[in-house]
Structures are given as structure tokens and as C-alpha cells.
Design brief:
globular, ten-stranded mixed β-sheet, alpha/beta, 19 strands, 36% helix, four-stranded antiparallel β-sheet
């Protein structure tokens, strides 16, 4: 969900002063269907799916039980996984459509959650607590809100006998939160491509922001994301006694390299998504900012406009590739010259730029052969952004305008990463569409006391239920 927070923070910075905020109604007594949904949501949230001690496989089995009880046959419920990761399995569910020639629509959500320590939390992170108009728990937002909504949506469709024109598919995966773990979306894309084949996918990543009073400020759709890639910078030498200092010091080589990276600015770039985003923002931004946006759109080399916009870290995050030092490790004794100095540099790479291009740029900027640059792991290859397709974006925005009249609607590229990065490259363009809102402090996602407003969850459920009916009946 770090990707969602980056997306939301960018939008907050863009529209904070101009949104036509809509008051949120007080939560009333739950409808019978909401009572049932709440129980499903509670069951999923309270199923521990951390990598250290939880089981996505168990969560997938529990969600499949709901679908089976609603009438889904075993033939339409597909469990997947690998023997080496028995607790990291997932589920693909299929609701067949009427038109065999029309490509399916895929609903994607991940079951795994970030680690949470009970001693650090105010409440038990694996017990759903409803308090002060919020649901509190690890995964209350990321991503069990969407996962439970998708399961509930298919259950409701099945019970009411809804037969969409297009087949609707649901993929519940594991491994999104931990680089290097078994990633279900990557596995499906590489090994079960036919099972998840679809015209497009709807995923986490989009959403909006609430002001301190709980009023929505905007709603956004994520269209594309940066590639996240770590680089290891390492310097080694024989070291020696600290009483005999030498110019060839591993720490100094590394420190100089990091200072050079700090001072380097990657070129400004625009994709169709970010050009659309900034064009919309220019209409609502303060005059000086609007003028800078228009100038930079015309000339990405405009230094004055660039500097003004980069002063906002959220704009800066989507104007170009960014690389930043995040971890350091050096030396082996207080009285010895360092034999090794190592740093991690995390880069968020703009679409259209390869990992190797960034590595070569870093090497050129550092200009020191003593500094060896390597990749500790590769989460995924660079993914092209999905198109700004009006057949997909139009229905989502039209429905949002009906549910939240007058609310600003934007499209944006995420500076973070989602599992959509595995699907778009194999021909399933993936969009972040949630119909949900988060508090300005990020709602504790990936941190302590993660929370989601109760009304936001129920409204998101209604929005996505209606949207999937629309998508399910799109002409082929």
C-alpha cells in the first residue's frame, strides 16, 4: 500500500486548496447485506497473513468457502501455489460470462499483509476493532478491504443470478508486500496466463484523500506506476590499522559516491498519464504553480519551472526517476580502516527507462571505479503504463461523479509499486480503481494502528459492486 499512499499524497498536494469537499453522512444502521459483508471482512482481516507467521493459503481457502456456499462450483475455483511455499498460495475464481468471445475483466487483490507486533499497537492488530467510526487492524486497508469486497461482489452476483456479458475473474494473491518472497501475481502471469487472461484488471492503487473533518477532497485512478529497484553500492579494500590512515578509504569512496548521487537530478519526463495529471492540476493550482506546470509541459528543460515544482516532494516524485540512499553498512572495528562499505540506493524509475540505464547513469555520476554497483534483487521488469482508455476510465469516473457529485477526479501515476506491474507487461493492462478514501496521515498503513473509516469501506463496496456490473456488461 505504500504505492497507494504515494498516489494519494501526490493528489492531496495537487488539489488540497480546490476540492469541492462533500460531507460524509453519519453511519446508519447496517443493511442485512452489509452485516454479512462485515462478517466476511472480519474473517479475512483476522486471518493472519504475515510472511513470518501467517498463511495466505488459509485465507484463500476461507474466501473460497464463501464463494462455494454462494453456488460457485469447484470447477470455477482454482487454488494455486508451489510446494516450496505452502503458506503462500492463492485463489482464482471465475464467474462465466454470456459472450464467449468477449474478453474477461480481472479483479486483483493481495492477501498478504505487512508484519505487525502486538506490543507496539494500541489494539491487537489481528482482531478487527470498530471504534470511533473506524475499523482498526493490520490489513484493514491494505489490501483486505479490496480483497473482501471482491469476494463479496462475486457472492452477491451469484446469488442474484447476475450473468455478465464478459466473464469476471478474481485473483487473490500472496507476496505483494515482501520483495523476494513467492509472488502470486508474478506466478500467475508466468505460469497460468490463460487462467487470468483478461481485457484489463482492476487493482488497488487508486483512491482519494479525506480532510481532517472526514470530507473527501478528491478521487483518483492509478494509471501506471514507477518501477522500484534497489542498487547496492559497495567498496572493498584490504583496510589496515587506523593509526596509519590511507587515502584509499572505503567509507570515503562510498560517502563521495552518495554525495554525487544526492546532487544529481534525472531529466524531467512525461507519460500520457502524468501529462494528463499535470494538465488537470494546472486548472486548479495557484497561479505561480499553474504557470510552472504549463511551462514545464511545454519545455521539460525549463529550469525555473522545474525547481518550483520539485520543491513539492509529491510532484517531485512523479516528474522523473528518483534515487535516494536508504541504508548504510561500513567498517568492522573502531580501530581499523574499513575493509568494506556498503549502501543501498532505492530508485523509483520512470516508465520508459530501463534498470540498466539507471545503473549506467549512477556509475557515470559516481565516476569512481572503486564503487561497484549491483542489483540485490529484481522484483519485476519495467512495465509500460496502461493506456488512458475511455472505455475503462469513463465508466469509473461517471459512476464516481454520481456517488460523489462535484468531487475532483484525476488520473495519476503511482511513485510506488503494485502487483499490476506483473500483469500489464503480459497484456493485461491494470488500473488502480478503489472508490475509497484515506485520512491525510495515511491511516497507519504499513505502520501502527492501521485503520479505515467504516463509511468509506461500505461506500467503496457499493462503488465497486456497481462498477463491476458495468464492466461485466461492456460490449466486446
Amino acid at each position: 500500500m505504500k504505492k497507494t499512499l504515494a498516489f494519494a499524497a501526490t493528489l492531496l498536494a495537487a488539489v488540497a486548496g480546490s476540492a469541492l469537499a462533500q460531507p460524509q453522512a453519519q453511519t446508519s444502521a447496517l443493511r442485512p447485506d452489509q452485516v454479512e459483508f462485515r462478517a466476511l471482512y472480519k474473517e479475512l482481516v483476522e486471518t493472519n497473513t504475515t510472511l513470518s507467521s501467517g498463511s495466505c493459503t488459509l485465507a484463500a481457502e476461507r474466501m473460497a468457502a464463501h464463494l462455494k456456499a454462494a453456488g460457485f462450483p469447484d470447477a470455477d475455483l482454482h487454488f494455486f501455489g508451489v510446494p516450496e511455499h505452502p503458506k503462500e498460495g492463492g485463489l482464482v475464481a471465475v464467474l462465466p460470462g454470456r459472450d464467449a468471445k468477449a474478453k474477461a475483466v480481472l479483479m486483483l487483490a493481495h492477501l498478504d499483509v505487512v508484519e505487525a507486533k502486538r506490543e507496539d499497537w494500541t489494539r491487537d492488530p489481528f482482531t478487527l476493532v470498530e471504534e470511533n467510526g473506524n475499523f482498526y487492524a493490520r490489513g484493514a486497508v491494505d489490501d483486505k478491504a479490496m480483497a473482501s469486497i471482491w469476494v463479496d461482489t462475486l457472492v452477491r452476483f451469484k446469488r442474484e443470478g447476475f450473468r455478465p456479458r464478459r466473464t469476471l475473474k478474481l485473483a487473490l494473491t500472496c507476496g505483494e508486500e515482501t520483495n523476494g518472497s513467492f509472488n502470486g501475481a508474478a506466478y500467475l502471469a508466468a505460469n497460468k496466463r490463460d487462467l487470468i487472461d483478461a481485457a484489463f484488471a482492476v487493482n488497488e492503487g487508486g483512491g482519494g484523500m479525506l480532510d481532517p473533518s472526514g470530507k473527501p477532497m478528491f478521487l483518483g485512478i492509478q494509471v501506471g506506476e514507477k518501477l522500484t529497484q534497489n542498487f547496492t553500492l559497495e567498496v572493498t579494500n584490504p583496510g589496515g590499522h587506523s593509526s596509519r590512515p590511507l587515502p584509499d578509504n572505503a567509507i570515503y569512496h562510498l560517502a563521495n559516491a552518495l554525495v554525487r548521487i544526492q546532487g544529481y537530478r534525472f531529466p524531467v519526463m512525461f507519460s500520457d498519464t502524468t501529462r494528463d495529471f499535470f494538465s488537470r492540476m494546472a486548472k486548479a493550482a495557484p497561479p505561480e504553480q499553474a504557470a510552472a506546470i504549463e511551462a514545464l509541459l511545454k519545455n521539460p528543460q525549463d529550469e525555473a519551472a522545474r525547481s518550483l515544482l520539485e520543491a513539492n516532494p509529491d510532484y517531485n516524485s512523479i516528474l522523473h526517476t528518483n534515487c535516494v540512499a536508504t541504508m548504510l553498512d561500513a567498517g568492522h572495528a573502531t580501530n581499523a580502516l574499513p575493509q568494506r562499505a556498503r549502501a543501498n540506493v532505492n530508485c523509483r524509475i520512470f516508465p520508459g527507462t530501463s534498470t540498466e540505464e539507471v545503473r549506467q547513469t549512477l556509475a557515470s555520476v559516481i565516476a569512481d571505479p572503486k564503487v561497484v554497483i549491483s542489483l540485490p534483487e529484481v522484483r519485476n521488469a519495467a512495465a509500460p503504463p496502461p493506456p488512458l482508455d475511455p472505455k475503462i476510465l469513463g465508466p469509473a469516473e461517471k459512476l464516481a461523479s454520481e456517488m460523489w457529485p462535484g468531487l475532483p477526479l484525476v488520473r495519476a501515476m503511482s511513485a510506488g509499486a503494485t502487483d499490476g506491474a506483473f500483469l500489464t507487461p503480459v497484456g493485461i493492462p491494470t488500473y488502480g480503481i478503489a472508490g475509497s478514501f484515506i485520512d491525510g496521515d495515511g491511516g497507519g498503513v504499513h505502520g501502527l494502528n492501521e485503520r479505515m473509516r467504516v463509511k468509506v469501506l461500505y461506500d467503496s463496496r457499493d462503488y465497486l459492486f456497481r462498477l463491476m456490473k458495468i464492466y461485466g456488461n461492456l460490449p466486446g
